[in-house]
Specification:
Shape: elongated
Strand content: 25-35%
Structural class: alpha+beta
Largest sheet: 4 strands, mixed
CATH topology of the largest domain: Ribosomal Protein L9, domain 2
Number of helices: 3
CATH class of the largest domain: Alpha Beta
Strand order of the largest sheet: 4-10-9-7
CATH architecture of the largest domain: Roll
Amino acid sequence: MKVLLIKEVPGLGIPGDVVEVKDGYARNYLLPRGFATMPTPHEMARFSKLRAEYEAELADRRTRAQRLAEKLSGAKLSFARKVHDEDKLYAAVRPQDVAKAIEENFGEKVDPHRIRMEPIEALGEYEVEVGIYEDIAAKVTITVTAAD
Protein backbone atom coordinates (compact mmCIF):
# COMPACT_ATOMS: atom_id res chain seq x y z
CA MET A 1 0.00 0.00 0.00
CA LYS A 2 1.34 3.44 -0.86
CA VAL A 3 1.17 6.12 1.83
CA LEU A 4 2.25 9.74 2.07
CA LEU A 5 4.33 10.43 5.17
CA ILE A 6 3.21 13.36 7.30
CA LYS A 7 5.94 13.04 9.94
CA GLU A 8 9.46 11.65 9.89
CA VAL A 9 9.55 7.89 10.40
CA PRO A 10 13.10 6.60 11.06
CA GLY A 11 14.14 4.07 8.46
CA LEU A 12 11.16 4.87 6.24
CA GLY A 13 11.28 8.50 5.14
CA ILE A 14 10.64 12.17 5.78
CA PRO A 15 7.45 14.25 5.46
CA GLY A 16 6.26 14.44 1.87
CA ASP A 17 7.71 11.05 0.83
CA VAL A 18 5.40 8.53 -0.82
CA VAL A 19 6.47 5.07 0.32
CA GLU A 20 5.28 1.53 -0.27
CA VAL A 21 4.58 -0.37 2.97
CA LYS A 22 2.70 -3.50 3.94
CA ASP A 23 -1.04 -3.02 4.31
CA GLY A 24 -1.12 -3.99 7.99
CA TYR A 25 1.70 -1.60 8.89
CA ALA A 26 -0.13 1.25 7.19
CA ARG A 27 -3.58 0.43 8.63
CA ASN A 28 -2.48 -0.47 12.16
CA TYR A 29 0.43 1.87 12.80
CA LEU A 30 1.10 4.70 10.34
CA LEU A 31 -2.44 5.89 9.61
CA PRO A 32 -3.95 5.71 13.14
CA ARG A 33 -0.97 7.46 14.74
CA GLY A 34 -0.98 10.29 12.21
CA PHE A 35 2.39 9.44 10.64
CA ALA A 36 0.91 9.02 7.17
CA THR A 37 -2.14 9.61 4.98
CA MET A 38 -3.36 8.33 1.65
CA PRO A 39 -1.53 9.96 -1.30
CA THR A 40 -4.40 11.80 -3.01
CA PRO A 41 -3.52 14.69 -5.38
CA HIS A 42 -4.84 17.20 -2.82
CA GLU A 43 -2.68 15.74 -0.02
CA MET A 44 0.36 15.57 -2.31
CA ALA A 45 0.08 19.30 -3.07
CA ARG A 46 -0.47 20.14 0.59
CA PHE A 47 2.55 18.18 1.80
CA SER A 48 4.96 19.36 -0.91
CA LYS A 49 5.03 22.68 0.99
CA LEU A 50 5.54 20.82 4.28
CA ARG A 51 8.46 18.92 2.75
CA ALA A 52 10.17 22.16 1.71
CA GLU A 53 9.79 23.55 5.25
CA TYR A 54 11.16 20.31 6.71
CA GLU A 55 14.21 20.34 4.43
CA ALA A 56 14.89 23.98 5.38
CA GLU A 57 14.68 23.00 9.05
CA LEU A 58 17.15 20.13 8.49
CA ALA A 59 19.59 22.52 6.80
CA ASP A 60 19.24 24.91 9.74
CA ARG A 61 19.91 22.09 12.23
CA ARG A 62 23.05 21.13 10.31
CA THR A 63 24.43 24.71 10.30
CA ARG A 64 23.73 25.12 14.04
CA ALA A 65 25.44 21.78 14.71
CA GLN A 66 28.48 22.82 12.69
CA ARG A 67 28.75 26.09 14.63
CA LEU A 68 28.55 24.19 17.93
CA ALA A 69 31.19 21.71 16.72
CA GLU A 70 33.51 24.61 15.90
CA LYS A 71 32.95 26.07 19.38
CA LEU A 72 33.57 22.74 21.12
CA SER A 73 36.54 21.54 19.04
CA GLY A 74 39.62 21.70 21.19
CA ALA A 75 37.66 22.91 24.23
CA LYS A 76 39.05 21.97 27.62
CA LEU A 77 36.76 21.04 30.49
CA SER A 78 38.10 20.63 34.02
CA PHE A 79 36.67 18.54 36.82
CA ALA A 80 37.90 18.46 40.41
CA ARG A 81 37.10 15.24 42.26
CA LYS A 82 38.00 13.76 45.62
CA VAL A 83 40.49 10.92 45.36
CA HIS A 84 41.60 8.00 47.48
CA ASP A 85 44.54 5.58 47.18
CA GLU A 86 46.50 5.54 43.96
CA ASP A 87 44.68 8.54 42.45
CA LYS A 88 41.36 6.72 42.04
CA LEU A 89 38.25 8.91 42.08
CA TYR A 90 35.45 8.51 44.59
CA ALA A 91 32.96 9.72 41.99
CA ALA A 92 33.65 9.03 38.31
CA VAL A 93 33.22 11.66 35.61
CA ARG A 94 30.29 10.49 33.50
CA PRO A 95 28.70 11.71 30.23
CA GLN A 96 26.02 13.53 32.26
CA ASP A 97 28.75 15.58 33.98
CA VAL A 98 30.34 16.47 30.64
CA ALA A 99 26.94 17.49 29.18
CA LYS A 100 26.27 19.70 32.20
CA ALA A 101 29.73 21.32 31.91
CA ILE A 102 29.16 22.01 28.20
CA GLU A 103 25.83 23.64 28.99
CA GLU A 104 27.37 25.79 31.76
CA ASN A 105 30.42 26.85 29.71
CA PHE A 106 28.92 27.19 26.22
CA GLY A 107 25.19 27.62 26.84
CA GLU A 108 24.34 24.70 24.54
CA LYS A 109 22.47 21.55 25.50
CA VAL A 110 24.02 18.24 24.45
CA ASP A 111 22.33 14.90 24.99
CA PRO A 112 24.52 12.80 27.34
CA HIS A 113 23.82 9.74 25.19
CA ARG A 114 25.69 11.40 22.32
CA ILE A 115 28.89 11.75 24.37
CA ARG A 116 31.11 8.78 23.56
CA MET A 117 33.17 7.92 26.62
CA GLU A 118 33.68 5.41 29.37
CA PRO A 119 33.29 6.75 32.91
CA ILE A 120 36.57 8.34 33.97
CA GLU A 121 37.72 6.87 37.27
CA ALA A 122 41.29 8.20 37.62
CA LEU A 123 43.11 11.54 37.53
CA GLY A 124 44.50 12.68 34.21
CA GLU A 125 43.68 14.14 30.84
CA TYR A 126 41.27 12.41 28.47
CA GLU A 127 39.91 13.08 25.00
CA VAL A 128 36.18 12.61 24.52
CA GLU A 129 34.09 12.71 21.35
CA VAL A 130 30.81 14.61 21.46
CA GLY A 131 28.35 13.62 18.74
CA ILE A 132 26.31 16.69 17.90
CA TYR A 133 24.19 15.85 14.87
CA GLU A 134 24.28 12.86 12.53
CA ASP A 135 27.92 12.80 11.34
CA ILE A 136 29.02 16.05 13.02
CA ALA A 137 31.18 15.56 16.12
CA ALA A 138 33.75 17.46 18.17
CA LYS A 139 36.68 16.34 20.32
CA VAL A 140 36.79 17.78 23.84
CA THR A 141 39.66 17.46 26.30
CA ILE A 142 38.67 16.51 29.85
CA THR A 143 41.10 17.21 32.69
CA VAL A 144 40.43 15.55 36.05
CA THR A 145 42.31 16.96 39.04
CA ALA A 146 42.29 16.23 42.75
CA ALA A 147 39.96 18.37 44.84
CA ASP A 148 41.31 19.82 48.07
